[in-house]
Amino acid sequence: MAYDADVIVVGGGLAGLVAATEIADAGKRVIVVDQEGEQSLGGQAFWSFGGLFLVDSPEQRRLGIKDSYDLALQDWMGSAGFDRDEDLWPRKWAEAYVAFAAGEKRGWLRAMGHRIFPVVGWAERGGYDAMSHGNSVPRFHVTWGTGPGIVEPFERRAREAQASGRLTFRFRHRVDALSVTNGAVDGVSGVVLAPDSVERGRSSSRKVTGDFSLRAQAVIVASGGIGGNHDLVRQNWPKRLGAPPKFMISGVPEHVDGRMIGITETAGARLINRDRMWHYVEGIQNWSPIWPRHGIRILPGPSSMWFDATGRRLPSPLFPGSDTLGQLQYIMGTGYDYSWFVLTQSIIKKEFALSGSEQNPDLTGKSWLATARRATNKGAPAPVEAFKTHGVDFIVRDNIEALVEAMNKLSGDNLLELGQVKAQIEARDREIANPYVKDTQVMNIHNARKYVGDRLIRTAKPHRILDPAQGPLIAVKLNILTRKTLGGFETDLDSRVFGQDGNIISGLYAAGEAAGFGGGGMHGYRSLEGTFLGGCLFSGRNAGRAAAKAAG
């Protein structure tokens, strides 16, 4: 049989790019096929904040953070909660990934020109015991240049391989089937879509202009997840999180539809943990959308008060930045699919960041001056102020009476009772002046400000919510935002895919979100954040190296 390449990679996102460049660097020929155009190279990583999970990094040590592989693995396993027979390979991937994050990950990236913002963020702080969910220390390392900064080294390597003839891109090629010969995957087939110069992220044409068939010794599926397909999200929604939301917004473009996952499963691949998901509860509707139902996630500091749709404060430890899935489970248990932040101008200017490269022009544009202004500006960062002015989910008022009235009008449910909301805020405000309190959220605020990174740029000085000098008051209606699928194709540590009969399928590999970021779900039930891009890097690298070696 004549091969068109040694390996075919399906998907031009981060995992696919990493895999393809590793194959090309090994001297093999690789074809990357993607249903979108060249302008979408890099996939969802381009839109990301560029956060990476690193352990015992120089950035941590400079800030006085004491971290270790053992502590990180303890946090990971406490968050993952592995409890299924099919968690054998996800657990092995988790152990290997934490070792990668504590070892060569930073140096490997740095050798390609990747750089990190010096202040380490503290995501998913937990709040239970030491063996439960959450990061014990700050580990969220933001890429200098955000999402584009993490894509750039691999796009550069891919372009160099393309120039040398080792790598070929086939954009606007939609795979409809994997070809299987004598039980081995040896190619892909599908249709060619009409060229479309639509802006990155926008919905592109699905007009078919032809078909194609390609053959290779191996195929790597790196096609992403299902976050843009709300029907699939609802279909796989786990009962433990309550009924699926009636209203959701999308953190990824429409073409992140899970179509290739279904095609690969049809070819015999074993998909596990499909009910494990990672969706955010701090979603706001984009006032200037790029894709359908475009939502943005608020990356909150610890000080906003969080109320459910009925006006009850979320219980400890479900505070901003603590436990995403715990918050999701609680919110869906209320019978409503939204909640509220109530905060002040002093809090929003210090604590609100928006996830995404396009919402952080200072970091994305690598401007030290503009980034420094985050800590010194009187207002919030410009993108946050734009949402405060134009966003349909934001309410700004001078007093609590007017704020609650507007919140009821916005939701249309009229569930909030002024006296109940005001009493909870006043009770919290009575404790804020003391460094020792019984209010757990206030304890968390004091704890956060002991960390220099939070004190400088992420945690407002403690103050009363109802202090007019800190105003105006702000309420934000928070929606469920689809993002990641944590399950995926079961793979060994070489990213080889298992079949439904439990045996390895010859010639088939999977990487990135399609593989649950490794093994079919290396996160288990919960993420520690900064681990999705890293999972694409690690699984893409393993897949590329293994496929290149197998190609002989």
Poorly predicted regions:
none
Backbone structural class: alpha+beta
How many β strands by DSSP? 20
Major β-sheet annotation: 8 strands, mixed
Helix content: 25-40%
Q: What separation lies between the terminal Cα atoms? A: 16 Å
What do the pLDDT scores average to?
96
Overall shape: it is globular
Quaternary structure classification: single chain
- Tally of DSSP helical segments: 18
Strand content: 15-25%
Gyration radius from CA atoms, angstroms:
23 Å
How is this structure best summarized?
This protein has 552 residues and is of the alpha+beta class. It contains 18 helices and 20 strands.
What does it look like?
- This is FAD-binding dehydrogenase.
- Its cofactor is FAD.
- With 552 residues, the chain is an alpha+beta fold.
- The protein is built from 18 helices and 20 strands.
- The protein has helices at residues 14-25, 58-62, 69-80, 88-102, 105-110, 146-164, 230-235, 259-266, 324-333, 345-351, 361-364, 368-376, 382-390, 400-411, 418-431, 440-448, 452-457, 532-550, and strands spanning 5-10, 30-34, 51-53, 140-142, 167-171, 173-181, 184-193, 208-221, 248-250, 271-272, 277-285, 295-299, 305-308, 338-344, 353-354, 394-397, 473-485, 488-489, 496-498, 504-510.
- The strands form four sheets. Strands 1, 2, 5, 6, 7, 8, 19 and 20 form an eight-stranded mixed beta sheet that branches. Strands 9, 11, 12, 13, 14, 15, 16 and 17 form an eight-stranded mixed beta sheet that branches. The protein has a two-stranded antiparallel ribbon with strand order 3-4.
- A hairpin with a 2-residue loop joins strand 6 and strand 7 (184-193).
- Helix 3 (69-80) packs antiparallel against helix 4 (88-102).
- It is globular and about 75 Å long.
- The two termini are 16 Å apart.
